[in-house]
Write a structure and sequence with these properties.
Length: about 500
């Protein structure tokens, strides 16, 4: 039976069970839970037995949260890091295991450890239920949500650990990760207490919808973290980014479905704006790394191009390459904008309770402005990087230049205004600061003033010029895919 399982999973579970760190952490958390039980039994009065179930369960859950939200993800980080520090990663590669099986095996091993911790705490949960005052459905929801968060944190820790083999950088990440994971424990304990105290809130359909969509977001986060770790472990000639792009497309689709669901359910246009800004920020921030990939297709990637040129052209945005990465970002940004604009044109099934916030026309303009600024922030710095992106140091420089350009666009006009004595430029009232244009759009609910219209026109012209300058690179990227498809079909 074990031979059919993931070999990395078997190795990691055996190593964890035989190691001292897992046994010590399990013993310490169980001792803390036992002490909490003894203190509660000795301190409570006979007439408080009905009311002490939730308080006791919260104390026990805090011990479990330390294990699931801090110890297990940190162990997953150390498990991936041990491959670098002990120089055993080369042995894994030579064993003919693909990166996907390595990463999934390590993530599944962390999930098994989480289940072992949970199984050890089941007697304490049973005792808490016997004290009465505990809703079983609320307890089940809290435990399942904690397991999902633990899985998300473990996958994220593996992805972070796979990012760099440098010991000094990893030491800094270890400190930051430990502090971040421990800070989640009090928040989880507080949320669990509120849910267990007010268990009836879980019967609210709105709360159920939000919890369901949060579960979908958690699963997508796990898939994205696994894809990131696989791309970091893959060979330079392998396809490192198509998996990331496919999962990113699924995330954008899930975000649009959630936005449409919330808008139809509650009828608030501001929900569309908030969700849209989150989608656009995630798309442009995550797409920046795709835009700095080397342009040429690797030898192994060329063999994965569809044999029919038409299908190859359709699959171009999901194939590796910086120019194709920008096509990917623009395709999704344009699709999101079109879908959200069509959604705002619909009348929701539930009328809004209050007319608060921006009008529909203002929301559409805000979304357009966000897209145009995203095009400028990504497109302008990448004009100065060509085939030199084949080197990792240059790709990191290109990513840093995006942040530098965004900061310079805001600061340089302000410094120039300081030199010439222009108060408007000094205070950031210029196109380099997105908040300036967004504020002017929000100040005129019915009709835009001439200055705002002029700024919108200049912003659209600048974005269009950037797209025009990138057009030759997109043509080269499309032609490369077309040639690869014809070569495969000829072969």
């Amino acid at each position: 039976m074990l031979d059919r399982l993931n070999p990395v999973l078997v190795k990691e579970v055996r190593q964890a069970l035989r190691g001292r760190s897992f046994r010590l952490s399990l013993a310490l958390t169980l001792v803390a839970a036992t002490l909490a039980t003894v203190i509660l039994v000795l301190a409570q009065e006979p007439d408080q037995a009905v009311e002490s179930g939730v308080e006791y369960l919260t104390a026990i859950y805090t011990c479990l949260a330390i294990a699931l939200l801090a110890i297990v993800p940190f162990a997953a980080f150390q498990s991936m890091g041990a491959e670098w520090e002990e120089s055993t990663f080369d042995l894994l590669v030579l064993s003919d295991l693909p990166p996907r099986r390595i990463v999934v095996g390590k993530w599944l091993s962390s999930f098994v450890l989480a289940l072992l911790f949970l199984a050890a705490f089941l007697p304490f949960f049973t005792f808490a239920f016997l004290l009465r005052g505990v809703d079983l459905f609320a307890l089940a929801v809290v435990v399942m949500a904690t397991l999902l968060v633990s899985g998300v944190l473990s996958a994220s820790s593996i992805a972070i650990s796979s990012s760099t083999p440098q010991r000094f950088v990893r030491l800094m990440i270890v400190v930051a990760l430990a502090a971040g994971l421990l800070s989640l424990v009090p928040a989880a304990a507080g949320i669990s207490y509120e849910v267990l105290t007010n268990a009836g809130v879980l019967a609210d359909p709105d709360v159920q919808v939000i919890v369901a969509w949060l579960g979908v977001a958690g699963l997508l986060s796990v898939a994205m973290s696994v894809a990131i770790a696989c791309s970091r472990l893959a060979h330079a000639e392998e396809n490192r980014s198509s998996g990331l792009r496919v999962i990113g497309s699924l995330g954008v689709l899930a975000g649009l479905l959630a936005t449409a669901h919330f808008y139809e359910r509650w009828g608030q246009p501001m929900i569309v704006l908030g969700m849209a800004v989150m989608i656009f920020l995630s798309l442009f921030a995550g797409g920046a790394w795709l835009c700095v990939e080397p342009l040429p297709l690797g030898r192994r990637v060329r063999k994965q191009v569809p044999r029919f040129p038409g299908l190859g052209m359709l699959a171009t945005p999901w194939l590796p390459g910086g120019a194709r990465g920008m096509l990917y970002v623009l395709l999704h940004a344009g699709g999101v904008y079109a879908v959200l604009r069509a959604l705002l044109a619909r009348t929701p099934s539930v009328a809004p309770t209050a007319r608060v916030g921006l009008s529909l026309e203002q929301i559409e303009l805000v979304l357009l402005v966000v897209v145009l600024y995203g095009i400028l922030y990504l497109g302008v710095p990448l004009l100065f990087f060509g085939r030199s992106l084949a080197r990792m140091n240059v790709r990191r420089l290109a990513l840093g230049s995006i942040l530098v350009f965004a900061a310079a666009a805001a600061l340089v006009p302000s410094i120039y205004g300081l030199l010439i004595g222009d108060e408007g430029l000094q205070e950031g009232r210029h196109l380099g600061v997105p908040a300036f244009l967004l504020e002017r759009i929000g100040q005129h609910p019915k009709d835009l003033d001439p200055l705002t219209k002029l700024n919108l026109q200049w912003l659209a012209i600048a974005a269009g010029l950037v797209l025009l300058l990138h057009f030759p690179r997109w043509c080269a990227a499309l032609l490369e895919v077309h040639r690869a498809a014809r070569e495969r079909r000829a072969a």
